[in-house]
Amino acid sequence: MKICMIGTGYVGLVSGTCFADLGNKVLCVDKDKLKINKLKKSISPIYEPGLDDLIKNNYRAKRLDFTSDLRKAVNESQIIFICVGTPTKNKSNLVDLSQVYNVAKAISKYINNYKIIVTKSTVPVTTGDLIEKIINKKVRKSLFDVVSNPEFLREGEAIRDFKYPDRIVVGSNNKKIFKKMELLYNPLIKKGAKFFCTSRKGAELIKYASNAFLATKITFINEIANLCEKVGINVEDVSVGMGSDARIGSRFLRAGPAYGGSCFPKDTKGLISIADKFKTHLSIVKSVIKSNNNRKILLTKRVNKILNNKIKNKKITVLGVTFKANTDDMRESSSLVLIPYLIKKGANIRYYDPSGPKNSFKKNKNLKFENTLSNACIGTDLIIINTEWDEFKTIDFKKLVKKNNFKVYDMRNLYNPSELKKKGIKYYSIGK
Questions:
Q1: Is-catalytic flag, 377?
Q2: Per-residue pLDDT averaged across 263-273, rounded?
Q3: pLDDT digits (tens, 9 = 90+) for 337-357
Q4: At 365, is the pLDDT very low, low, confident or very high (cuts 50, 70, 90)?
Q5: How many of the other CB atoms lie within 10 Å of CB of 94?
Q6: 71 has which bridge partners?
Q7: pTM (whole model) above 0.85
Q8: CA 151, CA 161: separation in Å to the nearest integer?
Q9: CATH number at residue 24
Q10: 26: which strand partners?
Q11: Choice among 4, 228, 263, 377 that is catalytic
Q12: Helix 127-136 crosses helix 98-110 at what angle (to 10 degrees)?
């Protein structure tokens, strides 16, 4: 099939590249010409394991191409995916849909024959209705259908998630569309993916409800971890015991920092705004948001106790600053609360992240990015493991630090406390 992806951010680029890898002809569109030129050289704007090679292979095979010419992309495509950002509006729970609506207006100018227009972006309930109205102002209804097909990609594992999904959700008010979308996804359905058909509004809500539930699981186990610390129980035992119940499942039951990234923070807020619009109270989701925000502060302030309230002039190493491993995404990361707090307290901080230095911290004084793990750790007073990169799971702390009386604050529970205790290392974990 001939497909165009409007937007070459995380969703559009990963999905478009994977569609091409399934044998489709894919044209990725972005108004940023500099980005397009880099993509033509197989330079990805995002960090995602395996994506660079996948782009290169499919571009060389002429299944994948990049352009800033929207007219060309719309004219040549059978299916048009809208994959632009839907951020939260400042100081509110409302979703900013301006990019989505601008794309809809632009598409309406260039439709020359029948098109399936698919929202891949996460959008509130009724957004598809509004897109339809916008396009229908310039194009007769017989020339297009608007479909909701939400993505369920995890950063760091996005390619695998696309190629081996649990389910594919398609929402349409025209039942004839389901067969066409099923044909597009047939290679994945053959591998075992469930193809689930519902209404357009149903598909829109499924995405928000799914993310809110996963955010709730993370928040729940983090609160249980707090209780475990008071009672003297290992939260990992609780997680295993709970997760072994098929009704609960083990995924997203690992205690650690607050959830972050591009989805959970904005989608929980977005779900609240949807509920407010329809005058429905979602008390659980509101509590999750509040608890998650408190989590960032709670884990940050534990440094005071670890260092006996003597943070000033201490050398502190932060390992990993992204919100999770295998991504360069800094959005809503706990490090954005942790590091400024420690700087304010007068600490001298070095940080290391395998995905490179971050613009978020460029303006901060008493903060330095180190390009190796060893440089970051040598002579430090405290190591804080913020992100669970594989590189951080087998550290010989004494060999790297090369001094006595340093401490390790492991916010990801990567190490066995008893083993580090035997080595004479003062170790602090979560929920134990």
A1: no
A2: 96
A3: 999 999 999 999 999 999 999
A4: confident
A5: 17
A6: none
A7: yes
A8: 9
A9: 3.40.50.720
A10: 3, 64
A11: 263
A12: 30
